Amino acid sequence: MATKATLEKTLSRRQKDVYEYVRMFIEDNGYSPTIREIADGIMLSSASTVHSHVNSLIRKGYLTHSSGGVRTLALTKKGKRPKVVTQAGIMRWIQDKGIEETNDGAVYNLLADLQEGIQTGRIS
């Protein structure tokens, strides 16, 4: 079990690199990277070094993992950045879904409701 002092220590530059790589990989792919993928992604030749950094991040409370699997790393609340919903992000999502400019009243109502929710803080 990690001590309070361990949990409050700041991350080294390489630990931040590893954490950011894992975070972005999970965001992009929906599953965690392997140790080798992390090493390749941050240009380290030693999987052992990456493993050491991952273990430090687990001890400090930034990552968790399940034993017995290769892609079992997960982010904890400690290191997660809050998701921010913006009107531009909503518009991009709608365009990505193939709902181009339309006169559909339901789409415009949905967008207006989302925009109002963002501005009032109902949606965070």
Write up what this structure looks like.
55% of the residues lie in helices and 3% in strands. The chain is mainly alpha-helical. It has 2 domains: 4-75, Winged helix-like DNA-binding domain superfamily/Winged helix DNA-binding domain (Arc Repressor Mutant, subunit A); 87-120, no CATH class. Strands 1-2 form a two-stranded antiparallel sheet. Helix 2 (13-29) packs across helix 4 (47-59) and helix 3 crosses helix 4. The radius of gyration is 19 Å and the shape is elongated. The two termini are 33 Å apart. The mean pLDDT is 78. InterPro entries: LexA_DNA-bd_dom (IPR006199), LexA_repressor (IPR050077), WH-like_DNA-bd_sf (IPR036388), WH_DNA-bd_sf (IPR036390). GO terms for molecular function: serine-type endopeptidase activity. It comes from Paenibacillus taichungensis.
A few lines on this structure:
By secondary structure, this protein is mainly alpha-helical. It contains 6 helices and 2 strands.
Number of self-contained structural domains: 2
CATH topology of the largest domain: Arc Repressor Mutant, subunit A
| CATH structural class of the largest domain | Mainly Alpha
Described by strand count, sense and barrel closure, the largest sheet is: 2 strands, antiparallel
| Large-scale geometry | elongated
Mean pLDDT: 78
Architecture (CATH level 2) name of the largest domain:
Orthogonal Bundle
According to CATH, the homologous superfamily of the largest domain is Winged helix-like DNA-binding domain superfamily/Winged helix DNA-binding domain
Number of discrete helical segments: 6
The count of strands amounts to 2
Which consecutive residue ranges, at least 5 long each, have pLDDT under 50? none
Beta content? under 5%
Helix and strand sequence: HHHHEEHH
Question: Can you list the strand order of the major beta sheet?
Answer: 1-2
Organism: Paenibacillus taichungensis
Protein name: LexA repressor DNA-binding domain-containing protein
GO biological process, one term: proteolysis
Domain LexA repressor DNA-binding: 9-72
